[in-house]
Amino acid sequence: MSTLTSSAGGAADPGAGDTAIPSAQRVTPRPVTRDRPARAVLMLEDGRSFTGEAYGAIGEAFGEAVFSTGMTGYQETLSDPSFHGQIVIMTAPHIGNTGVNDTDYESDRIQVAGFVVRDPARRASNWRSRGSLEDELSAAGVVGISGIDTRALTRHLRERGAMRCGISSTLDIPAADTPTTDTPTTDIPTTDTPAAGTLAADIPPAGTSSAGTSAVAGAADGGARAALLGRVRRSPKMVGADLAPRVSTREPYLVAAAGDGPARFTVAALDLGIKRATPLALAALGCDVHVLPARSTGEQLLALAPDGVFLSNGPGDPQTADYAVDALRTVLAAGVPVFGICFGHQVLARALGFETYKLTYGHRGVNQPVGDVATGRIAVTSQNHGFAVRAPLTGTTDTPYGRVVASHIGLNDNVVEGLECLDVPAFSVQFHPEAAPGPHDAAGLFEKFRDLMATTRTARVGSAASGSAGPVEPSADGAL
After folding, report:
1. How far apart are the first and last CA of the chain?
2. 382: which strand partners?
3. Are strands 143-146 and 114-116 parallel, antiparallel or unpaired?
4. How many other CB atoms sit within 10 Å of the CB of residue 263?
5. Pairing mode, if any, of strands 198-199 and 119-120?
6. Rounded Cα gap, residues 366 and 207, in angstroms
7. What's the CA gap between 164 and 197, in Å, rounded?
């Protein structure tokens, strides 16, 4: 049974000290047929369920139910390591119309635990397409569901918060041409045609009939759903999940600077779930990017004599990433420039002494507005995170590494979307400047990192010539 993991094959083995997460059971790739599709059930941990059609592999998958508001970029979403262990609901109703290609993957495999769409495309049509999305999910062993009211499901998660979820296409439930027992819950009305969902407590017991379903079918259906709900509630929660080492590279590798000339800068990138577009963005600016495993130490990062250290995005609870926090503190003490995004932003915050917390339903999509505190400029950004940093929105905070300010604020809910250190060369943002998918409003942050590395290098050369300066020494107590 899958828990906080995709049912797809090829997932990395857990590293030393990681808790192994078992793979999904009864996952069977199948040829796609729309003549008589298998029925599937999505069950939330609070007991609300949705019945639709199987989409992708036949089997069961479990993870955290989250929704993404992007209307495009589903292939990048599916392969984003930050979605590892999550069942992703696409709020855009029509998904799969451009098929899949070999260019848009952001990692070496599909990362999501499960996939939920309302109206899958009947036919893929794009000059780059090499096949359909459903075939791709099936071949990867990813269990999905289609034909449900994703609007009602999204509203439910917005009001109740992200929660554990399961998808099963192996239950003994009514056939495709038999009415289901799904009815809308009274607290969240809907007028949509697809099944709007039901609570497990509303399933008719043996000997009763509902919506044309026989007593025998109703009893079997109710028992199957109740059993599925039990499996959902036994699956691990996202809080406390240490997932970055599971998606990180096992061995260091190099993404060489673009162009024929020598690299201008050397960057050590800590892979906490890095997307392919990120090192390529740095390489385009003349950086040799050395990508290191998540559990690399600060000494291993500094052994590359980097001009800067980059902290990537990634999945899981940042409170579990003490290994990355310790490594970063070594880098900060050495005075090497640091740039963190998404999970890396949260790691920098923890290294500075701030806390992180879980958002109710998170920010996932390509249309998240963020304000730059210093300039007042507003950027529409790509985001994918369920945790956030607890830090003052205004003023300066003293930390063991000097003064820090909130540099960016989320305009939807006032979440801290960026931090900037005033006394050491380090900054971070909660969003994705590389996009993939998404707008390119924040792409200039990579140039800011490049310029910070250049300025710091020049300052070090001057300091060496005058025989002054040295590494930053954190305060003795290590507290704010």
Report:
1. 43
2. 432
3. parallel
4. 18
5. unpaired
6. 49
7. 16
Note the pLDDT tens digit of each residue in 308-320.
999 999 999 999 9
**Range 245-273 average pLDDT:** 96
Would you give the distance in Å from CA 30 to the centre of its chain? 27
Which of 185, 121, 145, 152 minimizes the C-alpha distance to 60?
145
The CB-side HSE value for 212 (13 A sphere, CA atoms) comes to 6
CA distance linking residue 474 with residue 480, whole number of Å: 11
CB 213 within 8 A of CB 180: yes
User: What pLDDT band is residue 468 in, cutting at 50, 70 and 90?
Assistant: low
Tokens at residue 416, please? Answer: 């801290």
Q: Is 465 exposed, middle or buried (0-12, 13-18, 19+ CB in 10 A)?
A: exposed
Q: Which of 203, 242, 209 lies closest to 224 in space, CA to CA?
A: 203
pLDDT tens-digit series, residues 138-176? 999 999 999 999 999 999 999 999 999 999 999 865 554
Distances (CA, A) of 470 to 92, 330, 475: 53, 14, 15
b/e per residue, 105-128, with b = 16+ CB within 10 A?
Answer: bbbebbbbbbbbbbbbbeebeeee
Q: How far is it, in rounded angstroms, from Cα 324 to Cα 204? A: 50
| Cβ-based neighbour number of residue 55 at 10 Å | 29
Give me the percent of the chain exceeding a pLDDT of 70.
79
Which has the higher per-residue pLDDT, 127 or 468?
127
The more confident residue out of 393 and 469 is: 393
Residue with tokens 């249309």, as numbered in its chain? 367
DSSP state of 126: -
Active site residues: 342, 432, 434
Per DSSP, the residues of 78-125 read HT-GGGTTEEEEESSSEE-TT-B-SSS-SSSS---SEEE-SEE-SS--
Kindly give the interhelix angle for 343-352 and 322-334, rounded to the nearest 10 degrees: 70
Residue 280 class from Cβ within 10 Å (0-12 exposed, 13-18 middle, 19+ buried)? middle
Q: How far apart are CA 186 and CA 312, in angstroms?
A: 43
What tokens were used for 342?
């998404």
The torsion angles phi and psi of 416, rounded to 5 degrees, stand at -65, 115
* Contact call for residues 388 and 416 (beta carbons, < 8 A): yes
| Residue 189: both structure tokens together | 């009305």
Length of the chain: 480
66, 362 contact by CB (below 8 A): yes
C-alpha 183/C-alpha 50 separation (Å) is 9
pLDDT band with cut points at 50, 70 and 90 for residue 185: very low
